[in-house]
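pinned: reference chain
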Amino acid sequence: MEDRAAYSAENCSIARTLAVVGEKWTLLVLREVFYGVRRFSELHANLGIARNLLAARLSTLVDHDILRRTTYQEPGARPRQEYRLTDKGRDLFPALVALLQWGDTYLADPAGPAVVIQHRGCDQPVSVVLRCAAGHGPLTTRDTRPSPGAGARRAR
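pinned: its structure tokens
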């Protein structure tokens, strides 16, 4: 923004998003759910996270309507919970792919990435690319600028 100091940083969508999903375990839980893991026991086994931390992260994601909790029951067993993405949760997929893409570029194993996200239709790798509403892109930080949105508030 031309005069960034004139606007409050308290009304920031990045800060609000990080308050919900910005913790390591929360992002790793989302990764697993995007990979198709739905059950607490599978999440626990895959992540190696303490059960109480996993329960807390799942509750936060449910409370924010990113995941929904559903009940399932296998024959002869007690009812259990599984977790499925909501529309709001599915909308986080590009953000996770962008993190994966950045990690693959700067932090991947010398042998290459551990996971490649592929388009089911053609088996080619997917990538996150920024474009403007008119379709120009790919864009970088040099091609963009922040400007006050409808929710911008003047600093006091």
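why pinned: Helices lie at 13-21, 24-34, 40-47, 51-63, 87-90, 93-106. The longest strand covers residues 67-72.
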